[in-house]
Amino acid sequence: MKPVAWIFLLATMAWAGAAGAQEAATPTEGDCHVGVYRLTDGALVDVGPTSDGALRWRTLDGQTGRLAKDNGAWRSTRGWTGADDGLAIAFGPCGEGKISFSGRAGTRVALEVRDTTFKGSGGTMLAGRLVLPKGGKAVPVSVLVHGSESYSARAFYFEPRAWPALGVGVFVYDKRGSGGSQGKYTQDFHVLADDAAAAAREARRLGGKRISRLGFDGGSQAGWIIPLAATKVDVDYALVRYGMAESPLAEDRGETLRGLKDKGYGPDVLAKAAQVTDATAKVVVSKFTAFDDLNALRAKWSDEPWWKDLEGEFTGQIAKAPEAAVRAIGPAQDKGTTWEHDPIPVLRSVEAPILWLIAGEDLEAPPEETAARLVGLAKEGRRITVLQFPRTDHGIREFDVVAGKRVYTRYAEGYYRAVLDFTRTGRAAGTYGAAQRLAP
Fold first, then answer.
1. Could you list the residue range(s) of the whole structural domain that residue 282 is in?
2. Is position 27 within any domain?
3. Confidence band of 333 (pLDDT split at 50, 70, 90)
4. What is the 3-state secondary structure (H, E, C) of the chain?
5. What is the pTM of this model?
């Protein structure tokens, strides 16, 4: 989820925003092989850019791999493992739009692309793009809402290629302060929700009669933004992937306690660590002025073995750094995160049907309380469907554990089908791989 990531190095501190499950930085957007391809058997494979000049392919069943040149040929590796997957993949000359994917020929799918600029919150100009299937048929359109990343969604998101090839339109826009959009990067959920609502209005204007349904779709931090945006503009659906129905402060607490539990610490230590997360929360909410509680706990427990193992979104770094350093660096790096946001009253006010997809073993967005809260809302009669994919981490990615670390292998089977079904119909009534239906 990463509302903000804190990295303290030796006597100095530098900050970095995390990119979550997406790959970031400046892509080779002009790479002539980027596109979505239809294979001879009718299957689709999307090929998109990565941050390091390589490519990543994806198929609708959740399989994915990294493509990089090796001795003049394209080498495909499984998921994010770096291990060969045995697939033979090659492209035709630039401009030809051809692929050979594991023995099957394919041709790039032509799409209708409409670029635009529009006014977001406070009049900030944002760069957007509507992508539709070719033809005149009306189709559902999803407005993609960002996570916490600070890179160009128009350059890196794969859905604006893949979904239109499957009959679903996409409106994608660069978050303020990223890509072609103006303004300053922020994690103020209210500003970002205003931007998302403006994007929905622009999508309706641009798409006109080609839009049969319009809704929001996004992951991680978008779980806080989409419900807010859905109260500002009429939409037909709201789809949240691996977001939280708790505050960002609760996210830090959950990550911190989960990390200690995974390292074998028991209830006594977890109770102490919970007090530390309350104290570090006061620090960030006060804009790095309220250190009394943290200093008192540091004096009591900082010599205990578990203290050095504190992690989380920010608790570990703040607790283990000198107060003077946090006071000096913190305010300058504040991204305006709406730390105390309570999503439940907002979710109760959303009229559109909601699909919430949970990663069952999410390290960035601990799922237990979110699942319980969403199920409770469904029992109140709210139109919320909750699917949980077991043994997946942030991004609905499956993983193996190698030498105690998670190695990501693919996206869960059924994940993309659930997204597309709900986008098309407002319902996700099928069976989606191993997903567990928590509500309704």
1. 5-20+248-333
2. no
3. confident
4. CCCCEEEEECCEEEEECCCCCCCCCCCCCCCCCCEEEEECCCCEEEEEECCCCCEEEEECCCCEEEEEEECCEEEEEECCCCCEEEEEEEECCCCCCEEEECCEEEEECCEEEEEEEEECHHHCEEEEEEEEECCCCCEEEEEEECCCCCCCHHHHCCHHHHHHHCCCEEEEECCCCCCCCCCCCCCCHHHHHHHHHHHHHHHHHHHHHHEEEEEEEEECCHHHHHHHHHCCCCCCEEEEECCCCCCHHHHHHHHHHHHHHHCCCCHHHHHHHHHHHHHHHHHHHCCCCCCHHHHHHHHHHCCCHHHHHCCCCCHHHHHHCCHHHHHHHCHHHCCCCCCCCCHHHHHHHCCCCEEEEEECCCCCCCCHHHHHHHHHHHHCCCCEEEEEECCEECCCEEEEEECCEEEEEEECCCHHHHHHHHHHHCCCCCCCCCCEEEEC
5. 0.90
